[in-house]
Amino acid sequence: MQPPRLTGVLVLVAVLAAATVLGWWRRRRDGRLRAVSPAAAAPHRAALAALGVRPGVVTLVQFSAPVCAPCRAARRVLEDVAGRVDGVALLEVGAEEHLDRARELDVWRTPTVLLVDGDGRIVRRAAGVPDRADLLAALTPLTAEARA
């Protein structure tokens, strides 16, 4: 009989550790609203206008796909937030139908939510289902600016 090989056990432990770290990192990052630099936000006005974003209106743009379960959850969150905050429009975009715009706006997965201010600039974005409280906090100053 041959003794068990320690190499296989070490490889298994390393793979499990790497998968755990990757899963933790992705879960921590998923759905988090990230600020977009003003320089990166400005060139996308034409693409957003082509999708239906109107000037002067704060808009939540969701890129989704028909078979995406998290997209349905994101839609519920966005509808709730848009219903609570006056002056916020909601625009759902099919990523497959608007693949060129999705690529132009650096959308690589669904759902992706873009928070667009009244000037047509992307100010925040989230990949995954965004947190309701984070969205409300991000929208408050934008809607105040749009009303002023």
From TrEMBL:
Domain Thioredoxin: 36-144
Entry keywords, A to Z: Isomerase, Membrane, Transmembrane, Transmembrane helix
Family matches, as InterPro entries: Thioredoxin-like_sf, Thioredoxin_domain
GO MF annotations, alphabetized: isomerase activity
Domain of life: Bacteria
Coiled coil: none
Record field: transmembrane: 6-25
Entry keyword annotation includes Protein transport: no
Name of the protein in question: Thiol-disulfide isomerase or thioredoxin
